[in-house]
């Protein structure tokens, strides 16, 4: 496909319009077709940026990506240049586009990134938590059992975990993380690059200070487990006895023990406390 057009994957601002790169502005101005997750929001963004475009704006989102794919490939075969944008940040990172990019690669159509704003990277680099290695998990699953399985799969990797979460699910998801991952440092990055940008630090072992009414776009970072040898079962039994003396419900005690132990989650500790 030597005469084919090119697919440009263009990062757009998270909130601050000044973060659009000059190259990104040039590509979006000159593209023949602009694929947007939400054409209305894209139109407002272009207006806010004062960006003159001559290309056609086409909707391209999760539920129409497969349907749109043949048409987009046809445009590329005709030699048209196509730009892919998401609502904000870098496309494909929990946004549509993977199937399109993969198909273009398989069919020999050129794909080129136009780097720029990325919420996972922006949040991670300003959080104060270990940046390497890290794993980006996208949005957490809706079902609790699936979220538990996700955290369990990454529990022992030694990686800092980065993911997106909706405001109504934040407290519940951090509670699940505390049970599966143990008492780790976390940071909630809210409204990145916007006027009310905020980084909220804490520990999973104590979520009492977390505001349940937080609003805005949120990226969550959970640090890796503290290093050291795993606490043996005798050590866990001793810690349980100490915490039981301080009082509290079994699950609360298990959470406190997990915060003092190495390599144990609250769920693991609770299992040792239950009669066989």
Automatic annotation (TrEMBL):
This is Ribosomal RNA small subunit methyltransferase I. Its main location: cytoplasm. PANTHER family: RIBOSOMAL RNA SMALL SUBUNIT METHYLTRANSFERASE I. One of its GO terms (molecular function) is rRNA (cytosine-2'-O-)-methyltransferase activity. Its EC number is 2.1.1.198. The gene is rsmI. Belongs to the methyltransferase superfamily. RsmI family. Catalyzes the 2'-O-methylation of the ribose of cytidine 1402 (C1402) in 16S rRNA. The keyword Transferase applies. Residues 6-207 form the Tetrapyrrole methylase domain. It is found in: Cytoplasm. It is an enzyme of class 2 (transferase). The keyword S-adenosyl-L-methionine applies. It comes from Pseudodesulfovibrio alkaliphilus. Keywords: Cytoplasm, Methyltransferase, rRNA processing, S-adenosyl-L-methionine, Transferase. One of its GO terms (cellular component) is cytoplasm. It catalyses: cytidine(1402) in 16S rRNA + S-adenosyl-L-methionine = 2'-O-methylcytidine(1402) in 16S rRNA + S-adenosyl-L-homocysteine + H(+).
């Amino acid at each position: 496909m030597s005469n084919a057009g090119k697919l440009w994957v263009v990062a757009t601002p998270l909130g601050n319009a000044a973060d659009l790169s000059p190259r990104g502005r040039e590509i979006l101005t000159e593209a023949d077709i602009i694929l947007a997750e939400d054409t209305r929001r894209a139109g407002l963004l272009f207006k806010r940026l004062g960006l003159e475009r001559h290309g056609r704006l086409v909707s391209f989102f999760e539920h129409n990506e497969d349907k749109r794919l043949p048409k987009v490939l046809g445009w590329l075969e005709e030699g048209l240049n196509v730009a892919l944008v998401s609502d904000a940040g870098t496309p494909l990172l929990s946004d549509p586009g993977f199937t399109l990019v993969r198909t273009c690669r398989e069919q020999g159509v050129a794909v080129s990134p136009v780097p720029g704003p990325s919420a996972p990277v922006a949040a991670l680099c300003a959080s104060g938590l270990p940046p390497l290695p890290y794993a980006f998990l996208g949005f957490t699953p809706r079902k609790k059992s699936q979220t538990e399985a996700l955290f369990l799969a990454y529990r022992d990797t030694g990686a800092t975990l980065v993911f997106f979460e909706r405001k109504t699910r934040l407290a519940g998801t951090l509670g699940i993380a505390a049970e599966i991952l143990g008492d780790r440092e976390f940071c909630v990055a809210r409204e990145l690059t916007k006027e009310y940008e905020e980084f909220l630090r804490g520990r999973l072992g104590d979520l009492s200070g977390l505001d349940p009414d937080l609003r805005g776009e949120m990226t969550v970072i959970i640090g890796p487990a503290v290093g050291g040898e795993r606490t043996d079962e005798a050590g866990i039994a001793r810690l349980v006895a100490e915490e039981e003396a301080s009082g509290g419900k079994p699950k609360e005690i298990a959470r406190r023990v997990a915060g003092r132990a190495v390599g144990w989650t609250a769920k693991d500790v609770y299992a040792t406390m239950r009669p066989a």
